[in-house]
Design brief:
The chain has helices spanning about 1-10, 15-30, 35-45, 50-70, 85-90, 100-120, 125-130, 135-155, 180-200, 205-220, 280-285, 295-325, and strands at about 160-165, 165-170, 225-240, 240-255. It is mainly alpha-helical and about 325 residues long. Helix 2 (about 15-30) crosses helix 10 (about 205-220), helix 6 crosses helix 12 and helix 8 (about 135-155) crosses helix 12.
């Protein structure tokens, strides 16, 4: 304990090792959804689910280790929602730009290298750009990301769904049976966490997540996210208000999940090293000229990825750092280089 305290300066930061351990477990439980959501989204483009799962886990591990041992900041890193949605449903989706997934990964690779160079302390461009963003805009960016994650959570809970008229509508929650409804127990868990946090109960998120998970496993409740819905290619308005839509295909949400909650049979497993996708982004760089996208389209997609990455990082880091007290009197994030 003393070694960890000394290594990370826990006491100096006004905390203790046990508090940080609970916070680490709570953070993992909060962000572990990405291990299934990210591969599920990427697999819709043709990327093997197991390969995407492996990449998601490794990226999260490397990011967290760098943040802990280099930056010494209590921030967890993992592939985030935003870039993956743009990748899966705009760039590589068969019903959208239909860019081959390996070429789209090449764009991610190039923008990642550029972003890394901009982030180097010797360059300092990323820090300068973040500091140049007005405080109100940085706060608003963090709030927007939070709302986006809230929509994703409510969607997975089955409490909201897509709607052609209003974009978002309430889910089918009218006839929920507590004995089988995953949506019901998901909301119970959310309310439980909120109440415990208001009452400042240590480990509120852990208690809420684990309690509702055990209840769900015991009852075998249904998974509200494991369903399919049509992918609409285009709609024609008839008589001023009715519409006739052409359905191109069907997107299955939560394809990696189960129809009902089941007791876990094992807690550790290894999906294996990626096969076809291991160096796909590198080899795809040679295929850009012959693709329909071309270098012009490739650069456009890559720059879009880069800007989303920069502003997503700026908003998230600033918001989390501000909440944790790591923003100084000059409105700059501590150890941001």
């Amino acid at each position: 304990m003393e070694a960890l305290d000394k290594m990370f300066g826990v006491t100096e930061a006004g905390s203790d090792v046990m508090t940080e351990a609970r916070a680490g477990v709570a953070t993992f439980l909060t962000m572990a959804y990405i291990l299934l959501v990210n591969p599920s989204m990427l697999s819709a483009t043709g990327i093997p689910f197991e390969d995407a799962l492996f990449a998601t886990a490794v990226a999260a591990f490397v990011g967290c280790m760098v943040m802990a041992f280099w930056a010494n900041l209590p921030f967890a890193l993992a592939p985030g929602m935003g870039l993956n949605a743009y990748f899966a449903f705009t760039v590589a989706a068969p019903w959208a730009m239909a860019v081959p997934w390996d070429i789209a990964l090449a764009a991610i690779l190039v923008q990642g290298v550029i972003f890394l160079i901009l982030s180097l302390p010797q360059v300092g461009a990323r820090t300068a750009m973040i500091n140049a963003i007005p405080t109100d805009l940085k706060i608003a960016t963090g709030a927007g990301i939070g709302m986006f994650l809230a929509i994703i959570g409510l969607r997975e809970m089955g409490w909201v769904q897509g709607d052609n008229a209003t974009l978002v509508n309430l889910g089918e929650t009218g006839a929920m049976d507590p004995a089988s409804s995953g949506a019901f127990w998901a909301m119970i868990g959310l309310i439980t966490i909120a109440v415990l946090m208001v009452r400042k109960v240590p480990g509120a998120i852990i208690i809420g997540v684990m309690a509702v998970s055990v209840v769900g496993w015991f009852l075998g409740v249904n998974d509200p996210y494991n369903e399919s819905y049509p992918v609409v290619e285009y709609c024609t308005v008839l008589n001023g208000y009715d519409s006739e839509c052409v359905v191109q295909g069907e997107f299955v949400a939560g394809v990696a999940g189960r129809e009902t909650a089941e007791w876990p049979t094992k807690f550790f497993d290894f999906v294996g090293l990626p096969d076809d996708t291991l160096f796909a982004a590198v080899t795809a760089l040679g295929d850009i000229s012959g693709s329909e996208l071309g270098w012009g389209g490739f650069i456009s997609v890559m720059v879009t990825f880069l800007f989303v990455d920069i502003f997503d990082t700026a908003g998230t880091l600033y918001s989390v750092g501000r909440q944790a007290g790591y923003v100084d009197e000059n409105d700059e994030l501590h150890n941001s280089d």
